[in-house]
Amino acid sequence: MLLLTSQRDTGEAVAETSGVRRLLRSAPNAIRPVAPATQLGDDTPVRASERPASASDIKQILCGGDPCSLHGVDKVIAAALADPSALGALFECLFCADAVVGMRAGDALEKIARIQPEALAPFTRRLLTDVVDVDQPSIQWHLAQILTEIELTAQQRQRAIAILKRNLERYEDWIVINLTLRALAHFARDDPGLYRELVPILRSHQADTRKSVAKRATKLLAQLQQAP
Fold first, then answer.
1. Which of 24, 61, 124, 223 could form a Cys-Cys staple with 72, CB 3.0–4.6 A?
2. How far apart are CA 101 and CA 128, in angstroms?
3. What DSSP string describes 103-117?
4. Residue 178: its pLDDT value, please?
């Protein structure tokens, strides 16, 4: 099990790196193609000729560094936003045998989902099928975040809710639980049936011995009960 907690604040999903903060401020729904270079948090330009377009290139960028860091994430986000083939290669890294690479790929895709959610539309089916089968907590907590950002049909929405319920029962990882509860609460805001089902679940998690989980459950319960 891979627990990479030093880089994130589960209170509000993910601790932004400086480069991603700039991307988020620049355009909430779209990012213009960058040319000739994109400057990111590590101050290393990613030029068009250097943008990775294969899974092996993306994997190489995401390898190395402190296993608890988001090494290479800024760089692959810039590449994926500029080049659909690089985005496809990044997606394939979710299935990498190297759990650190998979975690970093998930982090990059989650940030892309918030920057440009429509970019992940070609991968919706696989997010709801193939990615579900990756038995790695850090992949599943990023999946929970991604599912709340991308556009889903009514059928896909029900599939997403079923996945989240399964993960809540399957994993003891505190980050998975935090972010899965958060995603379920997101969907419950306009789903009365899910709301009724989620309230007792949140109440039970208020007694969790892990303070972060108990605090999250209390906060979500209050938000749901205050919602019109």
1. 61
2. 20
3. HHHHHHHHHHHHH-G
4. 98
